[in-house]
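Exercise: predict the structure of this protein bound to coenzyme A.
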Amino acid sequence: MKRSRPGKTVADSTVVTTALAQPNDANHLGNIFGGKVLAMIDLAGAMTAIRHCRQTVVTASVERVDFDHPIKIGYLVIIEARLTAAFRTSVEVAVEIHSENPITGSRCRTCSARVTYVCLDEAGRPAPVPPLVCETPEEKTRERDAHARRATWQQERRRGDCEE
Ligand SMILES: CC(C)(COP(=O)(O)OP(=O)(O)OC[C@H]1O[C@@H](n2cnc3c(N)ncnc32)[C@H](O)[C@@H]1OP(=O)(O)O)[C@@H](O)C(=O)NCCC(=O)NCCS
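Solution:
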């Protein structure tokens, strides 16, 4: 498969959204359900991948979700999703969630995750994605780490196939 689409920067697709932690999304302790947070992560991640690909995407995997602190009802939830790497037909997106005290404005990093999306063509087949142009040293480091993780995943995936 030939990949000839023009490259895009991380900033081209980065998504930052803010939501309010609502009572109907919370448990009896007044903290937002983990499942609700996962939905926020997937939504922001998908919007980032769609912006990069400008095509339909599907979630292929959600990896390494850490819930470091609870999010309380009434707090603001800031969701930031940015591309870490573009592969052949898939992209990896890192999502970070901060909660913000609505009165004091103090922020706390509550959750982070990495999500892989696969770009699909009109027939629903995996389609080539634009290359990612990393501009800063941090972006280059994140991209390098993503490629290393993917190499490990591919080895494990291949090993699994052989065992069957
Ligand atoms: C994701 C999906 C499209 C991959 O299809 P497939 O036939 O396995 O396609 P391929 O093996 O050719 O892989 C296509 C790409 O997906 C990636 N991929 C497939 N499974 C993956 C996984 N579990 N984690 C990360 N990447 C994955 C491959 O690495 C490949 O990426 P690359 O082209 O950048 O190298 C298919 O498994 C699917 O439709 N899954 C269901 C998706 C879904 O319904 N998500 C939830 C609702 S949105």
